[in-house]
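Following up on my earlier thread - several people asked me to post the actual chain instead of describing it. Fair enough. Here it is, all 176 residues.
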Amino acid sequence: MTDNINAPLEELVARLLENRDSLCAYLYMHLRNWDETEDLFQEVSMVIMRKANERLEVRHFKAWSREIARRTMLDYWKRKKKIPLPLAEEDLQACENAWQRKDAEPHLLSERMERLKICVERLSGDLRRMLGLRYEKDCSLREIASALGKTEGAVQVALSRARAALLRCMQTVKIS
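Reply from S.P.:
Thanks for posting it. Predicted structure:
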């Protein structure tokens, strides 16, 4: 699907907001840190806003914006002096190929998200809270253990079991 945006600012902002979750997921996949992801998303957004002044013709916004995110991330790693870079160029390309396959079949992602929501709802409240602390708040095992009055080992085991339960559920839940 081609986007063919002739890059007025309003259209680029709308497309950026539509694709925020996808871009943040792409960045988080490489960074594994929500604060860094948010910071880099802001940098990516600023680059895209500057590009609006150039009146570019953008044929595939998702791929174009991911390329901006990739370059921004590489610059970030260089500034942080992460040498060697966390991922080699061929690994980044493999990730981009996977994202392109995902973009080609957006209905699969929405179906997976629906199944995941159902599966998360089936977990106990404690497990949902642990998963939220770990993956939404980016808390360490120690922070989760402290917040819940448990040992780090107990949290680690519980999270492992929760992920296994989600995997089993995802493999069996059907969306009607």
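The radius of gyration is 19 Å. That should answer part of your original question.
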